[in-house]
Amino acid sequence: NAYPKVGPIVMTEIMYHPQTNGDAEYVELKNISGENVTLYDYTTNEPWRFVDNSDDPGIEFYFPAIPVTMLADQTILLIKNEAAFKAEYGVNSLDGITYYEWLDGGLSNGGEKPELQMPGDINAQGQRQYIRIDRVSYDDTSPWPTATDGTGQSLTKPVMKHNLYGNDAVNWQAQIPTPGM
Question: Which of 31, 53, 54, 65 could anchor a disulfide with 70, C-beta 3.0 to 4.6 Å?
């Protein structure tokens, strides 16, 4: 069997259980392709979206309708709350970091299936279908790194594994957070 297709945009860091403030959650996205990628579909005239569970989204963040283009090798952040994020990680300013806040919901501390999606076709019931670009079905138990569960460490995909399948626990480790770096 062929290896799963990975990219062009992948999740590289997930902070699902911050140490002191639950509103300091974030997800880091990276363009691993050598091309610019626009997070907007001109065929459907709809932006890409990020959800925490495609079957029952608590987080349902749509990228701006003014198209967002990620440059080759660019990183962006999706954060739950800017003030909590700054306080938790000792950041005074997010200048130079492209970020977006989601408005509702949060990542589960026990496990979740965050997913980046692009618009697809409309089904027979008139509902928009979405095409999965990347999904990480993490858990707070082994084989996933357990040190990411409230200790202040983030679930991190090392640089040498950015192009590997994100839904495999062996491609992730617990590390000190480096959001947007």
Answer: 31
**pTM summary value:** 0.94
Whether the Cβ atoms of residue 133 and residue 118 lie closer than 8 Å to each other: yes
Residue among 40, 18, 23 at smallest CA distance from 79? 23
Instruction: Encode pLDDT of 7-20 as tens digits.
Output: 999 999 999 999 99
User: Would you say 58 and 104 are in contact if contact means Cβ atoms under 8 Å apart?
Assistant: yes
What are the C-alpha distances in Å from 73 to residues 27, 69, 83, 149?
A: 16, 12, 27, 28
Assess contact for 111 and 133: CB atoms under 8 A. no
d(CA 12, CA 155) in angstroms, rounded, equals 8
Task: Extract the tokens encoding 56.
Answer: 């029952």
